[in-house]
Design a protein that fits this description.
This protein has one domain (about 10-205): Vaccinia Virus protein VP39 (Rossmann fold), CATH 3.40.50.150. A hairpin with a 2-residue loop joins strand 6 (about 150-160) and strand 7 (about 160-165). Helix content is about 25%, strand content about 25%. By secondary structure, the chain is of the alpha/beta class. It has an eight-stranded mixed β-sheet. The structure holds S-adenosylmethionine. S-adenosylmethionine binds next to strand 2.
Length: about 210
Protein backbone atom coordinates (compact mmCIF):
# COMPACT_ATOMS: atom_id res chain seq x y z
CA UNK A 1 0.00 0.00 0.00
CA UNK A 2 1.35 3.48 -0.80
CA UNK A 3 2.12 5.60 2.28
CA UNK A 4 -0.73 7.81 3.53
CA UNK A 5 -0.04 11.42 2.60
CA UNK A 6 0.28 13.95 5.44
CA UNK A 7 -2.62 16.37 5.94
CA UNK A 8 -1.94 19.51 3.87
CA UNK A 9 -1.42 21.92 6.78
CA UNK A 10 0.89 19.53 8.60
CA UNK A 11 2.86 18.95 5.40
CA UNK A 12 3.18 22.65 4.68
CA UNK A 13 4.26 23.70 8.18
CA UNK A 14 6.14 20.69 9.49
CA UNK A 15 7.22 17.98 7.02
CA UNK A 16 8.17 20.35 4.20
CA UNK A 17 10.12 22.52 6.66
CA UNK A 18 11.86 19.50 8.22
CA UNK A 19 10.47 20.64 11.55
CA UNK A 20 8.52 17.64 12.82
CA UNK A 21 10.89 17.39 15.86
CA UNK A 22 10.47 13.64 15.88
CA UNK A 23 13.55 12.75 17.89
CA UNK A 24 12.61 15.25 20.59
CA UNK A 25 9.29 13.54 21.26
CA UNK A 26 10.75 10.05 20.76
CA UNK A 27 13.44 10.74 23.39
CA UNK A 28 11.09 12.50 25.80
CA UNK A 29 8.62 9.64 25.72
CA UNK A 30 11.31 7.04 26.26
CA UNK A 31 13.27 8.89 28.93
CA UNK A 32 10.28 9.95 31.04
CA UNK A 33 7.84 7.10 30.23
CA UNK A 34 5.26 9.59 28.93
CA UNK A 35 1.77 8.21 28.30
CA UNK A 36 -0.22 11.45 28.10
CA UNK A 37 0.43 15.07 27.11
CA UNK A 38 -1.25 18.44 26.74
CA UNK A 39 -0.09 20.76 23.95
CA UNK A 40 -1.53 24.30 24.27
CA UNK A 41 -0.77 26.44 21.20
CA UNK A 42 -0.08 23.30 19.20
CA UNK A 43 -1.30 24.64 15.84
CA UNK A 44 -1.35 21.39 13.77
CA UNK A 45 1.90 20.00 15.18
CA UNK A 46 0.63 16.44 15.71
CA UNK A 47 3.98 14.65 15.82
CA UNK A 48 3.76 14.09 19.62
CA UNK A 49 0.98 11.58 18.84
CA UNK A 50 3.44 9.43 16.88
CA UNK A 51 5.04 8.62 20.26
CA UNK A 52 2.54 9.46 23.02
CA UNK A 53 -0.73 7.46 23.19
CA UNK A 54 -2.96 10.24 24.55
CA UNK A 55 -2.45 13.89 23.52
CA UNK A 56 -4.73 16.90 24.07
CA UNK A 57 -4.16 19.66 21.50
CA UNK A 58 -5.43 23.19 22.17
CA UNK A 59 -5.38 26.12 19.78
CA UNK A 60 -7.62 29.03 18.87
CA UNK A 61 -6.56 29.39 15.21
CA UNK A 62 -9.63 29.34 12.94
CA UNK A 63 -8.14 26.79 10.52
CA UNK A 64 -7.64 24.06 13.06
CA UNK A 65 -11.08 22.60 13.86
CA UNK A 66 -11.35 21.28 10.27
CA UNK A 67 -7.86 19.80 10.53
CA UNK A 68 -8.71 17.80 13.66
CA UNK A 69 -12.17 16.83 12.35
CA UNK A 70 -10.73 15.26 9.19
CA UNK A 71 -11.25 11.47 9.23
CA UNK A 72 -7.92 10.99 7.47
CA UNK A 73 -6.01 12.40 10.43
CA UNK A 74 -6.33 9.31 12.62
CA UNK A 75 -5.30 7.06 9.71
CA UNK A 76 -2.27 9.24 9.03
CA UNK A 77 -1.14 9.28 12.67
CA UNK A 78 -1.78 5.54 12.91
CA UNK A 79 0.54 5.03 9.92
CA UNK A 80 3.29 7.05 11.60
CA UNK A 81 2.93 5.99 15.22
CA UNK A 82 5.78 4.22 16.97
CA UNK A 83 3.82 2.89 19.95
CA UNK A 84 1.40 0.00 20.17
CA UNK A 85 -1.21 1.70 22.40
CA UNK A 86 -4.65 2.82 21.33
CA UNK A 87 -4.47 6.37 19.92
CA UNK A 88 -6.30 9.15 21.71
CA UNK A 89 -6.21 12.55 19.99
CA UNK A 90 -8.30 15.27 21.61
CA UNK A 91 -8.63 18.84 20.41
CA UNK A 92 -10.02 21.95 22.11
CA UNK A 93 -10.59 24.98 19.91
CA UNK A 94 -10.17 27.72 22.49
CA UNK A 95 -7.89 30.17 24.23
CA UNK A 96 -5.72 28.02 26.50
CA UNK A 97 -5.80 30.78 29.12
CA UNK A 98 -9.48 30.02 29.70
CA UNK A 99 -10.61 27.00 31.68
CA UNK A 100 -10.05 23.77 29.70
CA UNK A 101 -12.47 20.88 30.16
CA UNK A 102 -9.82 18.41 31.29
CA UNK A 103 -9.01 17.03 34.75
CA UNK A 104 -6.41 18.82 36.85
CA UNK A 105 -3.03 17.12 37.42
CA UNK A 106 -3.79 14.50 34.78
CA UNK A 107 -1.06 14.61 32.10
CA UNK A 108 2.55 13.40 32.19
CA UNK A 109 3.88 16.08 29.84
CA UNK A 110 3.02 19.72 29.16
CA UNK A 111 4.36 21.08 25.87
CA UNK A 112 5.14 24.79 25.47
CA UNK A 113 6.60 25.66 22.06
CA UNK A 114 6.47 29.17 20.58
CA UNK A 115 2.99 29.86 22.00
CA UNK A 116 3.23 32.27 24.93
CA UNK A 117 3.07 31.59 28.66
CA UNK A 118 1.67 28.07 28.61
CA UNK A 119 3.39 27.28 31.91
CA UNK A 120 1.31 29.91 33.72
CA UNK A 121 -2.07 28.96 32.32
CA UNK A 122 -1.78 25.20 32.04
CA UNK A 123 0.61 23.83 34.69
CA UNK A 124 -2.47 22.90 36.74
CA UNK A 125 -3.23 20.10 34.26
CA UNK A 126 0.26 18.59 34.69
CA UNK A 127 0.70 15.81 37.26
CA UNK A 128 3.03 16.45 40.16
CA UNK A 129 6.20 14.68 39.04
CA UNK A 130 5.28 15.38 35.41
CA UNK A 131 7.53 17.15 32.90
CA UNK A 132 7.21 20.56 31.24
CA UNK A 133 8.98 20.97 27.89
CA UNK A 134 9.38 24.70 27.24
CA UNK A 135 11.41 26.75 24.87
CA UNK A 136 12.24 30.37 25.51
CA UNK A 137 11.08 31.89 22.25
CA UNK A 138 8.32 33.77 24.09
CA UNK A 139 10.04 33.65 27.49
CA UNK A 140 8.13 30.66 28.87
CA UNK A 141 11.23 28.74 29.94
CA UNK A 142 12.43 31.77 31.93
CA UNK A 143 8.91 32.08 33.35
CA UNK A 144 8.90 28.44 34.50
CA UNK A 145 12.37 28.93 35.96
CA UNK A 146 10.93 31.61 38.27
CA UNK A 147 8.08 29.34 39.35
CA UNK A 148 8.79 27.39 42.57
CA UNK A 149 6.60 24.51 41.41
CA UNK A 150 9.12 23.75 38.63
CA UNK A 151 12.71 22.50 38.85
CA UNK A 152 14.99 22.57 35.79
CA UNK A 153 16.13 18.99 35.18
CA UNK A 154 17.69 19.11 31.69
CA UNK A 155 18.26 21.27 28.64
CA UNK A 156 17.67 20.26 25.05
CA UNK A 157 20.30 20.80 22.38
CA UNK A 158 19.11 20.76 18.76
CA UNK A 159 21.20 20.29 15.65
CA UNK A 160 18.78 19.96 12.75
CA UNK A 161 16.83 16.78 13.35
CA UNK A 162 19.12 15.66 16.20
CA UNK A 163 18.08 16.36 19.78
CA UNK A 164 20.13 15.63 22.88
CA UNK A 165 19.33 16.14 26.56
CA UNK A 166 21.96 17.48 28.94
CA UNK A 167 21.44 17.09 32.67
CA UNK A 168 24.66 18.59 34.04
CA UNK A 169 25.86 22.18 34.47
CA UNK A 170 22.27 23.41 34.50
CA UNK A 171 23.14 26.42 36.66
CA UNK A 172 24.91 27.89 33.59
CA UNK A 173 21.61 28.17 31.69
CA UNK A 174 18.97 30.91 31.78
CA UNK A 175 21.52 33.38 33.13
CA UNK A 176 21.53 36.68 31.23
CA UNK A 177 24.51 38.12 29.37
CA UNK A 178 23.73 41.55 30.80
CA UNK A 179 22.96 42.23 34.45
CA UNK A 180 19.16 42.38 34.29
CA UNK A 181 16.69 41.09 36.80
CA UNK A 182 14.22 38.69 35.19
CA UNK A 183 10.77 38.98 36.72
CA UNK A 184 7.33 37.70 35.75
CA UNK A 185 6.35 41.26 34.88
CA UNK A 186 9.39 41.93 32.67
CA UNK A 187 8.84 38.64 30.82
CA UNK A 188 5.15 39.39 30.27
CA UNK A 189 6.04 42.89 29.01
CA UNK A 190 8.65 41.58 26.54
CA UNK A 191 6.82 38.43 25.46
CA UNK A 192 10.15 36.84 24.61
CA UNK A 193 13.23 35.56 26.40
CA UNK A 194 16.43 37.43 27.24
CA UNK A 195 19.93 36.96 25.80
CA UNK A 196 21.60 34.20 27.79
CA UNK A 197 25.25 33.34 28.27
CA UNK A 198 24.39 29.76 27.30
CA UNK A 199 21.21 29.37 25.27
CA UNK A 200 19.46 26.04 24.69
CA UNK A 201 16.75 25.12 22.24
CA UNK A 202 14.57 23.65 24.96
CA UNK A 203 14.31 23.27 28.72
CA UNK A 204 12.84 20.40 30.73
CA UNK A 205 11.31 21.07 34.12
CA UNK A 206 9.93 18.65 36.69
CA UNK A 207 6.75 19.76 38.47
CA UNK A 208 7.67 19.31 42.10
CA UNK A 209 4.71 20.78 43.88
C1 LIG B 1 3.98 29.99 16.36
S1 LIG B 1 2.68 28.82 16.50
C2 LIG B 1 3.52 27.45 17.22
C3 LIG B 1 2.90 26.15 16.86
C4 LIG B 1 3.56 24.92 17.48
N1 LIG B 1 3.55 24.99 18.91
C5 LIG B 1 4.97 24.73 17.01
O1 LIG B 1 5.89 24.59 17.84
O2 LIG B 1 5.20 24.69 15.80
C6 LIG B 1 1.74 29.47 17.87
C7 LIG B 1 0.35 28.85 17.98
O3 LIG B 1 -0.15 29.13 19.28
C8 LIG B 1 -1.51 29.48 19.18
N2 LIG B 1 -1.84 30.28 20.37
C9 LIG B 1 -1.14 31.35 20.86
N3 LIG B 1 -1.73 31.83 21.97
C10 LIG B 1 -2.82 31.03 22.19
C11 LIG B 1 -3.81 31.02 23.20
N4 LIG B 1 -3.81 31.91 24.22
N5 LIG B 1 -4.76 30.06 23.14
C12 LIG B 1 -4.76 29.14 22.12
N6 LIG B 1 -3.84 29.11 21.15
C13 LIG B 1 -2.87 30.04 21.17
C14 LIG B 1 -1.64 30.20 17.86
O4 LIG B 1 -2.97 30.15 17.37
C15 LIG B 1 -0.66 29.44 16.99
O5 LIG B 1 -1.30 28.38 16.31
Amino acid sequence: MPPIQPPALYKQHFTDKSDERLELFRKLTKTFKIQSAMYPGSFVHISPSFFIPSVIYIDNDRRIPAFFADEQLAAYVESRKEHSEQLEIKFHHQNYEKSIDEPLESVDLLISQYAGFVSIACSKYLKIGGVLLANDSHGDAAMANLDPQFRLIAVVDRKGDRFTFKETGLDQYLTTRRPVEITRESLKRRGRGFGYTKPASGYLFRKIG
